[in-house]
Structures are given as C-alpha cells and as structure tokens.
Amino acid sequence: MTQDKLGPLVPPLRFAALQPRLYRGSYPRQINYRFLKRLGLKYIVSLTPDPITPENDKEFYEFAQENNIQLVHIECGKEGGKRKKRGVPIGYSAVVKALELMINVDYSPLYVHCLNGGQVSSLAIACLRKLSFWSSVTIFNEFLVYTNSINLHDRTFIENFIAEINVPEHKVNWIWTGLSKDIIGSHPTLKFVNTNDKKYSDIS
User: What domain of life does the native source organism fall in (predicted)?
Assistant: First the structure.
C-alpha cells in the first residue's frame, strides 16, 4: 500500500522530542495515531482531568491496546484562563509522579501529554529541566515555545519546585550526563534518593 493511500503522518499539536525516546504534545486524535505508532511507544502519560477509558475515548483506548501501549493517568485540572489570569492546574505531587516515569528507562519510549500540549505539559517539562540543572532563563525560553506566554503563577511554580525524586534503578542514560554524583547530590532544591532511601550522592 502506498504512502498516499495510507495518508500523511500527522504529529499531535505541539509535538516535540525532548530527549531520546521521550516525547511531549497534546491529546492525541485519530489523525495522530499512525505517527505515534511509528515511535514504538511503551507508555503514554496523560496529564489530564480524566483517564483514557473505553467509555470516554474508545478510539484512543483501543489504539493503545492494539499497540501494547500502557496508559498512565495523572490527574490534573484543565488549563485555566489566559496570560495574567491563568492559574496553575497541576500540583507538585503530580509533577513528581510524571518525572519519575520520564527518567525511568523501563517506561521508554514514553509520550507525555496534556489536553492542548501547552501549560500543563510545559510546567511538568520545566520541572524536568530543573531536575537536569537547566538555568531558569533556558527553562522559561523553552516554556514560551509551547505556550506563547508565561505568567507569575507559572514562574513561581517552577522556581518553588522543591521535592524528593526517587531515582529508578534503570534510569535513562541522558539524565545528568557528564555530572558527578557530588554535584547531583547537592542540587539546590531537589533531593534524589533510590529505593533504599539513600541520598543520590551515596549511591554506588
């Protein structure tokens, strides 16, 4: 069958490859399924108000089932308002859950999405960049690529992100490349621990 008969490969809105085998974008629609199938996804993480079920999105659910893709739902609110009045519809606990999946190679390839691929996904990815020691300026510049605006609530949420992150036994190979364990263990706002609750700098 020719490419013309199959139709075009259409990525989801605001789609991007963040790192090898880690992708972001908007809520997938039927037109995006062929594109997503070619990524060989193992997991799709939905940062949305409701989970993907046969009742609320039969086509998406069946696409995942047919392609052996596991669906993970992390509850978040809807993107709210515009510009200065826009609130923050995701909590730190939800971000931590998402980050621990994104840095675990056992969940790769992974696609993370919110409803429109904008604010919610961008807040989670901004925290991933903070975990990766990106500067605030670089984080905010990337944020603006996908949202067109960043307000005080967004900036405060990112700057005040303080958490304990569980480092999986099989972490992705792109995280902290070139950094020593002493540097990683002295992150100014984040604490990294393994399953035995050791500080990351103590992990051999």
Answer: Eukaryota
HSE-CB at 48 with a 13 A cutoff on CA atoms is 22
**Dist. CA 93–CA 90, nearest whole Å:** 9
Distance set, CA 54 to CA 16, 33, 73 (Å): 27, 16, 14
Tokens of 58: 């039969």
CB 88 within 8 A of CB 154: yes
Are 104 and 171 in contact by the 8 Å Cβ rule? The answer is yes
* pTM of structure: 0.89
Question: What are the tokens at 199?
Answer: 């500080």
Q: Which residues belong to the active site?
A: 114
Q: Which helix (H) or strand (E) holds 74?
A: strand 70-75
Residues in contact with 84: Cβ distance below 8 Å, sequence separation at least 6, in sequence order: 151, 152
Q: What is the pLDDT of residues 48-70, one digit of tens each?
A: 999 999 999 999 999 999 999 99
At the top level of CATH, the class of 9-163 is alpha beta
pLDDT digits (tens, 9 = 90+) for 138-153: 999 999 999 988 999 9
Domain boundaries, the chain: 9-163
Classify 199 in phi/psi space as left (phi over 0), alpha (psi -120 to 50) or beta. beta
Which 8-state DSSP code applies to residue 81? S
- Cα angle 148-24-149, degrees, rounded to a multiple of 5: 10
